[in-house]
Amino acid sequence: MRARWPWGGFPRWMRGLGGLAFLTLAVLSLSRIVPPLASQSATASPEIRAATLIPVLTQEAAPAGWAVSIQGAGAGRLSLQNGADWGAYTSPIFQADFPFNAVALAWKAQTPAGSQIILEVRASPDGQEWSEWFQAEPLDGFLADEGDNRSQVIVARGRFLQYSATLYATDPDLPPKLGDVKITYIDSSQGPSTPQPRAVGTLTRGASVNMPAIISRAGWGSPEPYSSDRWPPEYREWQKVIVHDTITKNNDPDPAATVRAIWYYHANTLGWGDIGYNFLIDTQGNIYDGRFGGENATGGHALSCYNPGSIGVALLGDYRYAEVSPAMEDALENLLAAKSYQHNINPLGSGYFGDRTLFNIFCHRDVSGSCGNNHQDPGTYAHDRMPEFRGKVWDRFPMYSQAWVQHNTPARMAAGATASVAVTVQNKGQATWSPGSLFRLGYRWYRQDGTEVLQAGGGQQRAELPTNIPFGQSVMIMAQITAPPSGGAYTLQWDMLQEGVTWFSSQGSPTLDAAVAVDELTYVAEVTAQSAYGPRLPGSKSPTWVELRNTGTATWYRTGANPVKLGTWSPADRASALATAGDWESPSRPTYADQDAVRPSQVVRFTFLATAPAGPGLYREHFRLTADGKGWFGPDMFLDITVLRPIKTYLPQVYQRYSGGW
Ligand SMILES: [Zn+2]
Question: Do 446 and 487 lie in a common domain?
């Protein structure tokens, strides 16, 4: 269990009680039934009462022949008579101040190697009819505390109490010693005895393992349902589940009262400030919310090595000799499935935790002997079924499920445009996603009326996984998407699939739907510059260009369905007087852009050879851009050309033979 104060220290409730033990010696009664001796009542809440008895050892209760000796001042110390290898002491009967439904013991013990002390307690409503004897199981964390021991809560109902101690020694020279026995009795009977199950929350990630109904702290009558001021919650992401049992009696007539008693004992008697377990489950399958703080709150159930990062689940009862009831088993598996699913804990998995590798769902006894843990709980009837429980928890997981973590699908795209999208998705199902088994991320476009846009490639686009992804792991997948060819409002629907087997959405796992506004493609341009074109001689060929900015949404391509070209204009498709045979595509199409793709806002030149016409004069040639299949666009551009009259040149005779023959 949790130990809050330093080793060797005393919890608050014990301070100031030492002197009381002295005084009680004087009021010791010799009657068979004695009134309470020293007792201190502590009422933390109107609903729960508790008091602590400090009984004094009496010679009357240690008759000769029982081989125990009483030594020391005050309440005294119990040991073995010289040479005895065992002895027993049964206390007088004590009457409590009020009826109780749970008790717990505190004691100091010296147990040299080979010696042992067994403490037991029983209860009676009238001092006549007695319960069985309940053994006080020491809580972890106190054994090493210089013999300072606390028991777990013992469910025992009545008004009268009695305890017994049995001492054993294998070496009579090293007898055990027992002292400072204190009995705390708790009345937590007031409060909801048949609480209505209330869900404290539902899963928000992956909707496929439902949270079972859990009785809230208010629902079981915690005096502090909404706070834990004395032990403010500390948080560590839950990675493990540790299963306990409370070693309380089976067939508990009022499990909610027992939960309240455990809360009181942990919070007040032990001074922790709250109950240690995160959840408790009763025989009828009720689940009780324990430690305040909700998800990832650190409890107090397996000491410092194992408390942070683990969920402490306590089965009410003692499973050393009794079976776990079917209702309790079902509740345990439901709770473990919901919590391990929510926290991405693989129920069949294992991993390093605290100081060693442990199953993700393990038993408190599995870490016995480590970090101060000595409990052997839960009992064999629960412990030995853990492999079966883990399998049944795993069986409650869906086969195909995912959680969408993050994505950067663009909110706006141009029609037909492509984009790279990163989608981070988490595997929330049993099936490991492997590229080899054709697990992929798919996407589909839907119009506003819900009809699907079928794209090239069958309309169902895919992105490959980079690696194997088991349950609980996330992966970022890069997908190339292509927007629909026409503008409008669309939904891009992401969905995982196993090719040829199933889309995850068909298995009930939600798709990721992103709204994408697709802009209609527009072809718009503006002139930014053009080449100078001075007077030319007829037939001379000159590189000529015009520079344009793409101010529309469509990318200009040289090839494809809508190649963009420079064309003759005014009138359109006229054969140009400047056409250069062999260089132009045709007399009405001088050229394409100088680069293969011109994206919106890019600037590009259209360069072509212009051949000056044969006849001298002034020519004005109009051009405009055209996208095949879309039409003409952009400004009306023109080129003014002055073609000079050819000049007859009379060169000296000597040069004539070299002339071109104008
Ligand atoms: Zn335990």
Answer: yes
